[in-house]
Design brief:
It is built from three helices and ten strands; from the N terminus they run ββαβαβββαββββ. By secondary structure, the protein is of the alpha/beta class. A six-stranded mixed beta sheet has the order 5-4-3-6-7-8, with helices on both faces. A four-stranded antiparallel beta sheet has the order 1-2-10-9.
Length: 178
């Protein structure tokens, strides 16, 4: 299936599931080289990161912990410009090496908000692993430590990314047909 229709829009494959899985393995190897002896604490950002977080963590072979936070900054295809905390972090991360797992960094507003919140909890370090990064869309100076792919400013769905809640379950990443 090279194209899919989600709600009122048509999408075509942008990144195949094979490319996705190959890149996740590389990211897991890179993270392992740095954190294998540190017992890091991973924080997956819901809803979008659930597939990436699952695949990434399955490729790590060292002790770690994982939890999730839920933030919202989108409605339909548009960034709201405001970040809402829907589910917060309950665990104590003081002195821990924290790795935030994001599906996509677009404007950088969500991750900037999150970094302030996490830094207030006094971790030993904070790293960011994002599957997708849109450098041209950034409105905040955000540096991700682990990036799956840099992508252009396109509306993407699949592999956790959605359009009004639909399309997250697709194994490929799709871009809107123009």
């Amino acid at each position: 299936m090279n194209t899919v229709k989600v709600l009122d829009r048509q999408f075509e494959i942008f990144l195949s599931s094979e490319k996705i899985q190959d890149r996740v393995k590389v990211l897991a190897d890179d993270i392992s080289k740095v954190y294998a002896d540190k017992t890091p604490f991973f924080i997956g950002i819901l809803n979008g990161s659930f597939m990436f977080a699952s695949d990434l963590l399955k490729n790590l072979n060292f002790p770690c912990q994982v939890s999730f936070m839920k933030l919202a900054s989108y409605s339909g295809t548009q960034s709201l410009g405001v970040v809402n905390n829907l589910v917060g972090l309950k665990e104590n991360i003081e002195g821990r090496h924290v790795i935030i797992i994001e599906d996509i960094i677009d404007t950088g507003l969500t991750i900037s908000h999150l970094l302030e919140e996490i830094q207030a909890k006094k971790p030993a370090s904070i790293s960011i692993a994002t599957f997708l990064l849109k450098p041209e869309a950034l409105k905040k100076d955000v540096k991700a430590d682990y990036v799956g792919f840099e992508v252009p400013v396109k509306f993407l769905i699949g592999y956790g990314l959605d359009y009004d809640g639909y399309g997250r379950n697709l194994k490929h990443i799709y871009s809107e047909v123009e």
